[in-house]
Amino acid sequence: MGLATILMCSSLSGSLAYAESKSSTYDASFFENLKQRAIVHELQEHKIAVNPKASIADLLNTADSTSLKSKNNSDLQQNLEKLNKSEYIYLTLDGEVYSSEKGYVGMADKVEPKEDSVTDATYKVEGLLNETVNNHNISVASKNNPTPSQVNGGTSGAFSRIQLNFNGFDGVNGRVQVPFVYNLGVEEQPWIYFGFDSPRGKVIEGGFAYQTGRKVWQGYIRNSNGFDYSLGTWPSGQTVRNVKFYIDKNTYDSYLSMENSEVIVMQTPFNSSDLSSMSLKRVISIAKDNFNGNNIYGQSDGAFMDLVVSKTNSDYYYPWENYSEYSLWDGAQWHGTIDWPTYYVQYFDNQDNRRLTATIKNRNR
Question: Cis peptide before 341, with omega less than 30 degrees from 0?
Fold first, then answer.
């Protein structure tokens, strides 16, 4: 998806006082509940058993217990303090945006979804989940030398897409080095992000988008009706610690937090059936409309590090590489894990997949 099609939520317009009909829905207690759910998740991620309906005060008291003396939980207190003080932003399926501090802040600019978009690829694969791979090099895809239209998302950019099977994933956490960016051509925009895909074609994303005008990276979260951008920005090459993207298994809201200092929450179209069969992907890309397989000129070098993931039937996180990857030829397109095109993607420092640095660059030029 090219820069021209991305309309930033920072240009939101509208009254700072939200409409009367919405005031009772997205009030202080609503945001307090979002915060409570985020704190519950943080405690569970640190393998601390909690009452999911406990008050924030009780949850923080639990965190003050002897569990904090564990080396594995040494960062927990700081994380909880940040979550407790953070501003929470909420994006509805209708594109309305609310803030815990400002109330209604306007409508997210709508973006019409494109079937072949790098950032909106759909996976209608019910009954076809019969092919998996265990690494990101799909020899058969390379051997067939697919055309852009034969790769899901192939006409919208070059990318490294690594996708886990449809086994019920609901969370990912780790460090993200936002890419170094070089020599971008016209309408080329780098991305690095996570995505959840359900077998019935519903997709959400969270990660970082490069702002070509300001030359910084900005966090974003997206549903089918719009984007919500983070307030914070990061320079190229900076490592953002504790990037967390997950779906709350009770409310089905998705949470994106960067270093627990800013939390963006998004309403999703998912249900319990989706969560039980959800796939998870990670993508490093340079997007460009009408990509023909050879007409991207820039370079993007980014990395995912120490990724751990969770499944809907567990509160705990385990290394990404513990799980098998997904790839499928459906008779018309390749879905799932793929380097596209293979001569644009190169990997470095790939030691047991704990750090995966991908360079997106046309090596034929």
Answer: yes
